[in-house]
Amino acid sequence: MKKIFLIIIVLVSHFISGNAQNNIEKDHFILNGKIDGELTDSLVFYYENIHGMHVLNSKVLNKNGYFTFEGQIIGSQPQMVMIMLKEKGDKAIMGSNPNRINFLLEADQMTFTATVGAFDKAVIKGSKSQTEMDELKRLKEKIRKESGVRNKEKESEIDFAFFEEHPDSYVTALHLLSYLSKLSPERLNYYYARLSKKVKQSSFGKRLDIGIKKLQAGVPGGTAADFSATDLHGNSISLSDFEGKYILLDFWATWCIPCRKSAPHLLETYNKYHGNGLEIICIGDNDRQPDQWIAAIKKDGTGAMHHVLRGADINKELKGEFNDKDISGKYGIKGLPTKILIDPNGKIIGRYGSDGEDDNNLDEILAKIFK
Questions:
Q1: pLDDT tier at 152 (50, 70, 90 boundaries)?
Q2: Which residue would you say has higher pLDDT here, 186 or 302?
Q3: CA-wise closest residue to 117 among 41, 61, 35
Q4: Neighbouring C-beta atoms of residue 160, cutoff 10 Å
């Protein structure tokens, strides 16, 4: 009996050990590569590991340009990663760089081959999703060569055909993210509904779901989402504080040139209608530069209006997580400046600027309301 019990323990231990090994292998990636051309000191590789931590790995290249990166990622889905040559003087990762490329990494054995100065033509193998991405790119490049110019309409048709034919592809969800500001919520919902369960549950699918919900927020005819924030003077204000009044939300940023140019007209609008019951709440996209936000308000002379910051959280944005404090997210803001007009009952009656109708339409409706 003891002998049988011992055999069972050994078998169970072996089963558990085997499963653990399989999980490690499932989540493990190996990226072997070669860079041709005049090499710099090292290669930089950026990805998110199995624990959700962003890893920036740097490796010195040997004289032949060979390298290997390996680690663990969440193995059930591909993720977008970045690889680049580290330039002398630590050339910034952001901006134009011919020695940088983003691609889809999967928990598998992959290869990467590129030439200095032409990383956009890198050959990447071992990822089904990246192969699909490359095929889309090839079809679009074919159109450009045939016409001699970029035809965005035909390129979009290629994407739409891919979405229809590949509802089980992570690339479909990833590419749909780039259409959040170009397609109607109805069209986006159509494509999203067709996605397979595994794609919907991926990081790309979750970000797409959040993005569509944001687009549906702040649409004329809907109820304005309440929010609370600390204003320029340190006071807590909420949208509901102004119930019974017409409210104009002005989404702007100090770095947005059209926003700054429209400040005099916004102030004129405030002075013209505030006495009749119009409240203007300016929502600045400067959570990381509050000093610039305060200085711009002072320079533009708009301090008489209510001013709050949007409540952005860059860490949540990178992870595609919903941020309940983000006012711009509640209203589906995709471009600046955007103005949203709310009636005394809390209903949205207009959306204006880069994310809606022309500002002239706003002037007309305000003139009718306060005639």
A1: confident
A2: 302
A3: 35
A4: 15
Half-sphere exposure of 82 (CA within 13 A, CB side): 14
Q: What is the pLDDT of residues 257-277, one digit of tens each?
A: 999 999 999 999 999 999 999
Under 8 Å between Cβ of 150 and 144: yes
Contact status, residue 225 vs residue 217, Cβ threshold 8 Å: yes
Q: What is the 3-state secondary structure (H, E, C) of the chain?
A: CHHHHHHHHHHHHHHHHHHHHHHHHHHEEEEEEEEECCCCCEEEEEEECCCCCEEEEEEECCCCCEEEEEEECCCCCCEEEEEEEECCCCCCCCCCCCCEEEEEECCCEEEEEEECCCHHHCEEECCHHHHHHHHHHHHHHHHHHHHCCCCHHHHHHHHHHHHHHCCCCHHHHHHHHCCCCCCCHHHHHHHHHHCCHHHHCCHHHHHHHHHHHHHHCCCCCCECCCCEEEECCCCEEEHHHHCCCEEEEEEECCCCHHHHHHHHHHHHHHHHHHHHCEEEEEEECCCCCHHHHHHHHHHHCCCCCEEEECCCCHHHHHHCCCCCCCHHHHCCCCCCCEEEEECCCCEEEEEEECCCECHHHHHHHHHHHCC
Say how many C-beta atoms besides its own lie within 10 A of residue 206's C-beta: 16
- Residue 359 contacts residue 336 (beta carbons within 8 Å): no
CA angle 355, 228, 295 (to 5 degrees): 70
Q: How confident is the model at residue 354 (pLDDT cuts 50, 70, 90)?
A: confident
Q: What pLDDT sits at residue 7? A: 39
User: Residue 66 corresponds to which tokens in the numbers above?
Assistant: 């060979």
Closest Cα to residue 127, out of 147, 107, 113, 146?
107
* pLDDT value of position 132: 97
Dump pLDDT digits (tens) for 55-80.
999 998 888 999 999 999 988 899 99
